[in-house]
Each structure stands twice: as C-alpha cells, then as structure tokens.
Amino acid sequence: MLTLLFAVCVIVARDLVRAVTALLFALLMTAGMYFALGADFLGAVQIVLYVGGVVVLVLFGVMLTRDVEMTVPYLGFGQFLPALIVAGAVTWGLWHLADFLPRKAFPPVHRSVTPILGELFMKKYIVAFEVASVLLVGVLIGAAYLVRREVRREE
Amino acid sequence: MILYTYHIFRVSAVLFGLGVFGMRVRRNAISMLLSLELMINAAALNLVAAAAFTGTYISGFSMAVFVIVIAAAEAAVALAIFIALFKSRRSIDVDEAAEMKG
C-alpha cells in the first residue's frame, strides 16, 4: 500500500527534511489504517501525537543539528549487503508468520470504542495512565535539562 | 475493498523490515530515529490489527496508546541527546561518537 511507498522514501531520501515529510505521510497512512480497523481514538492519537508532535520535534532536531551540508551521505556497500540480509530475513519471517493466521476479513465495527477506552483509562488502567503521564513529564524535563546544560558549558 | 487480516500483518512486516534496513544502512542519528519510528509504528499497527482481529478491541487498543506515548517520549529524549551531541562535536554521525566503546 501507499504507506510502504512513503516508508521507502523515509529510508532512501538523501535530504533529511524530505525524509521527515515522507515519514509524516507514512504515519498519516497508518492513522488511516487505524480508522479502517475501527480504532478511531487511536487514529486521532496517532495524528495528534505523531503527525503533530513527533514530526515537528524531529523537524526541529533536523534544523538545529544541521551542519554545512544539507544531505547525508550514504554508507558504502559494505554496510548495504548485511543490512539487506538482516532486514530481508526479518521481513520474510514476519511475512510468513502471517500465514499461520486464519484468513478472514476483519469483523465490521458496530460502534465506537472510545467511551469504553476512556472509562478504562480512568478505572482499570489508571496506574498505567498515571505512570505514562509522569514519564512524559520526566522526559520533557530531562530533555530540556540535557540541552540546557550543554548551552551553559559553551558560554 | 475488504480488509483481510494478513494484509495488515504483511504491511506491518514490511514496515518493520524497512525500519531494520534503515537502522543498519543510515549512520545519521536522525535518520536512525526515523527508522526507529517506522519500527515502533509497525509494532503498534500489529497490536491494533491483532486486537481488531480477535474482537477484543479494548485491551489491544489501550496497549497501542501506551506504545505511541512511549514512542513520543523516546523521540523527545533522543532528540535532546542528538542536540547535546551536536553541540559538543558538530556532527550527529553515530560512528564519530564511539569513544566510549570498550
């Protein structure tokens, strides 16, 4: 499908900004697949968090760490062949793992699962939910601290 | 078009393989991060597909939400590290940051 095309672009693009844009579209396609599978809340989360958050973050990273040259060079064929072998083996294995599953169509989705999901997050999975939020806060503070300290040392 | 289970699983398999390939081929840290995002996406997609496939939507979906959250956190930390790395050595090539190697 189209997702894979964009994923190939992510790997192949020499220009990092182009790679990030291709990643954006690949993530959007994945969100579309979530919607098709009936995971409407997940699709929304994917768009808001990934397409809105992570891609912008990565773009900032690209801008801030850009050196004189705009493109990143490929490595030679010495790395290319083992990479192809490893990735090919992984893909082959996962591909044929899907053969063990019964081939049936997805059951049609009757109702949105978002209300159930929200209730679950506030009741059964409250600990995991809180841990995730604390983790995010810790990550943000830690990331800011990491970057900030380096700035001070440079001054 | 009817969506069959193995469609999604195979898409996610190829997505993961592409991530592995990119991880191995690219030596630029941000490119590697992008490949990592592809792999995490493949994993989350697999979770969602399995949950939709078995009909137990809720548990798989909530797990996938946490996967996405962890991926976002990991991207933030990785980018902070890259920026710190870039400030100290003007490059984010992972081969040049190998002096801690034993």
Summarize the structure.
The complex is a heterodimer of chains A (155) and B (102). Chain A is mostly helical and 155 residues long.
Task: Describe what this molecule looks like in 3D.
The complex is a heterodimer of chains A (155) and B (102). Chain A has 155 residues and is mainly α. Helices cover 75% and strands 0% of the residues of chain A. Chain A is built from six helices and no strands. Chain A has helices spanning 2-12, 16-36, 40-64, 77-97, 114-122, 126-154. Chain A is globular and about 45 Å long. The model of chain A has no long low-confidence stretch (mean pLDDT 74). By secondary structure, chain B is mainly alpha-helical. Chain B has a single domain, classed as Orthogonal Bundle (Helix Hairpins). Chain B contains three helices and no strands. Chain B has helices at residues 5-25, 29-54, 57-89. Chain B is elongated. Chain B starts with a helix and ends in a 13-residue tail after the last helix.
Detail the topology: elements first, then pairings.
The complex is a heterodimer of chains A (155) and B (102).
Chain A: H1 2-12, H2 16-36, H3 40-64, H4 77-97, H5 114-122, H6 126-154
Chain B: H1 5-25, H2 29-54, H3 57-89
The average pLDDT of chain A is 74
Distance between the termini of chain B: 54 Å
How many helices of chain B in DSSP terms? 3
State the helix count of chain A: 6
Assign the CATH architecture of chain B. Orthogonal Bundle
Mean pLDDT of chain B: 78
Helix content of chain B: over 70%
Question: If you compute it from the alpha carbons, what radius of gyration of chain B comes out, rounded to the nearest whole angstrom?
Answer: 17 Å
Largest β sheet strand count, sense and barrel closure of chain B: none
CATH topology label of chain B? Helix Hairpins
Overall shape of chain A: it is globular
In total, the number of strands of chain A is: 0
Number of strands of chain B: 0
Termini Cα gap of chain A: 50 Å
Which secondary-structure class do the elements of chain A indicate?
mainly alpha
What does the oligomeric state look like here?
Answer: heterodimer
Any idea of the CATH class of chain B? Answer: Mainly Alpha
- Sheet bearing the most strands of chain A, described? none
Name the structural class of chain B: mainly alpha
Strand content of chain A: under 5%
